[in-house]
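Recall that a protein's primary structure is simply its ordered list of amino acids. Everything else, from secondary elements to tertiary packing, is in principle encoded there. The following example makes that idea concrete.
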Amino acid sequence: MARNKKTEVQEVANPNGTVPSVTMRGAGMEVLGPEDLIIPRLSLVQPTSQIDGVEAGKFYMNLTGEQFDQVEAVFLKVTKGRVYFADDAIERKPVCGSSDRIKPSPRFEPPAAPTCKECIFSRWNGKEPPFCNESYNLLGVMVESGFPFWWSVKSTAIAPTKRFLSAIALRARMGKNLFDARATIKSQLVTLPGKKYHVPAYALIWLKDSSGYRELYEHYAHEEVERTFMAEEATNGDGADGEDFDWKTGKQVK
């Protein structure tokens, strides 16, 4: 694959000059910590996605309903998971999955198998990939606002994400960390006979001073994506949860 501007790596200063503070408390919320808050999840909207009012190719933040043409973020940690969609499912909702690729999440009852290793859906059949897809969940913060979010990728988004992560991991011997790089993520349309889909395109820039992001990493080091998934499970398709609260507008549904 030819190298282009999207894969160039260069040393530049953080244009904002500072990084977000780890302080999350506003007036009246002093007692709240990370364990009390639900971190939303960012996704790249596909032509087959069923999200009202959101165009394919946009980045969409669930729970808040925000849309972005592109995203500038610093990622703090990455976890690996699995997700299985049944072929005969009327709605594209997972019927089993794992947040660590070791055992199924308790959200799925009953699970397809006691452990991922024992599950027939996680095994390769010759050159045929498993029915249960691998996934990556990256915890990041928006560069401009410091807003935390989970960036979940699977299927065709995994390959470009692996290249992005590899560009950082290959410098680990030089002391580089995941949070030492700022990523600009744009949507790239792929057109093949009979189908179209969008994949993320990453541009990586090394930060000269990432000390503030190290503090954020330590702040969120124990955060798990499972809490966000559980919040999504409790939310109905119209954005209202089991007690009729709309996460997108922050209002009670009448």
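The chain has a mean pLDDT of 80. The chain has one domain: 5-79+141-252.
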